[in-house]
Amino acid sequence: MLQLAAHERVTSVLTVREFSEEESLVMLTRGGYIKKSKLSAFANIRANGLIAISLEENDELRWVRLATPHNTVLIGSTQGMGIRFRTSDEQLRPWGEIPGGCAR
Q1: How many CB atoms lie within 10 A of CB 20?
Q2: Which residue of 11, 23, 54, 71 pairs with 39 in a disulfide if CB–CB is 3.0 to 4.6 A?
Q3: How far apart are CA 3 and CA 1, in angstroms?
């Protein structure tokens, strides 16, 4: 069971077979922050949970995807702007141990 505060909601649910070192979670917020964390960081979560990403005021988590270094992310905005990058460590570095920072 998850202990969620009144203002919290589940954004994504992912099924994984194992918490491998090669796979990562890529998280994107409405405000444009993107964070990549090693999937293995989620292998042993305490009963009181884990803060995977810290959000600024009025920001929200839009999606979370499982990624390998060979995947590509394409993000578009309502203003017609777009960005495409690989999820390799060279183009999207993972942020240290959880909790960590975000790139914008």
Answers
A1: 13
A2: 23
A3: 7
Question: Which of 7, 69, 60, 75 is CA-nearest to residue 36?
Answer: 69
Q: E-assigned strands of the chain?
A: 24-29, 34-38, 61-67, 72-76, 82-86
**Closest alpha carbon to 28 in 65, 82, 66:** 65
- 75: which strand partners? 83
pLDDT, tens digit (0-9, with 9 covering 90-100), for 11-29: 888 899 999 989 999 999 9
